[in-house]
Design a protein that fits this description.
Length: 214
């Protein structure tokens, strides 16, 4: 099963990914998590990506496409995978299609921009795993600590309000066109396309996704 999550920054892609990967037993491929790991490790890729990410801009298509192609070729992706944060431009979607990497299900999570700005201020993440929490809506078992490792949670550097607004602007310009793009893919019978109301509680969104995907 090959699933793709589509939605604005903060719509809840990473949150639902945690649930979907366990439910369907497929690995999550989060380009954002991969880039943050590279930043943390101080690799050349990380050094290049850091400034771009902190400014709320998109990393180059070429770089991201190479990263994802390499990842989906790994053994654990043979049974399927869950794309989180990729593709997010038309050239990225075209590169997938021309490489024969097709998607079975597109899952769009829809949240209005103003809700997102409010939500991001309360996000906390576990840097090691990418697990996501919220100080009100999705609390860790112990305040400020990751549920699995007990390690400290952190605030993402790009969650500052002005950066969130920049990311939203870029989402509308460069990623939103993928709604129409994958709508056409679905209309030709090559994938399913389902849109979910991401303003509902986390568990309610998960329940609807399972109901749609089976
Ligand atoms: P990336 O990490 O992909 O960030 P993003 O797309 O901006 O999305 P987020 O991770 O911010 O949000 P999310 O939808 O996962 O929401 P979450 O579940 O965390 O990318 C970061 C950067 O890397 C980009 O800006 C770019 O520079 C670069 N990059 C990555 N991929 C790229 C690509 N393909 N091409 C080029 N550049 C790329 O939830 C947010 C908060 O809300 C959490 O606190 C959560 O607990 C809470 N929450 C979730 N669901 C609910 C709910 N239903 N109700 C209430 N609260 C909720
Ligand atoms: Zn995310």
């Amino acid at each position: 099963m090959r699933i793709m999550l589509l939605g604005a920054p903060g719509a809840g892609k990473g949150t639902q990914a945690q649930f979907i990967m366990e439910k369907y037993g497929i690995p999550q491929i989060s380009t954002g998590d991969m880039l943050r790991a590279a930043v943390k490790a101080g690799t050349p890729l990380g050094l290049e990506a850091k400034q771009v990410m902190d400014a709320g801009q998109l990393v180059s298509d070429e770089l991201i496409i190479g990263l994802v192609k390499e990842r989906v070729a790994q053994d654990d992706c043979a049974k399927g995978f869950l794309l989180d944060g990729f593709p997010r431009t038309i050239p990225q979607a075209d590169a997938m299609a021309t490489s024969g990497i097709n998607i079975d299900h597109v899952v769009e999570i829809d949240v209005p921009d103003e809700d997102i700005v409010k939500r991001m201020a309360g996000r906390r993440v576990h840097p090691g795993s990418g697990r996501v929490y919220h100080i009100v809506f999705n609390q860790p078992k112990v305040e400020g600590k990751d549920d699995v490792t007990g390690e400290d949670l952190a605030i993402r550097p790009d969650d500052e309000e002005s950066t969130v607004r920049k990311r939203l602007e870029i989402y509308h310009e460069q990623t939103k066109p993928l709604v129409e793009y994958y709508g056409k893919v679905a209309a030709s019978g090559q994938a399913t396309y389902n849109k979910f109301d991401g303003t509902q509680a986390v568990a309610a969104v998960s329940k609807e996704i399972v109901a749609a995907l089976g």
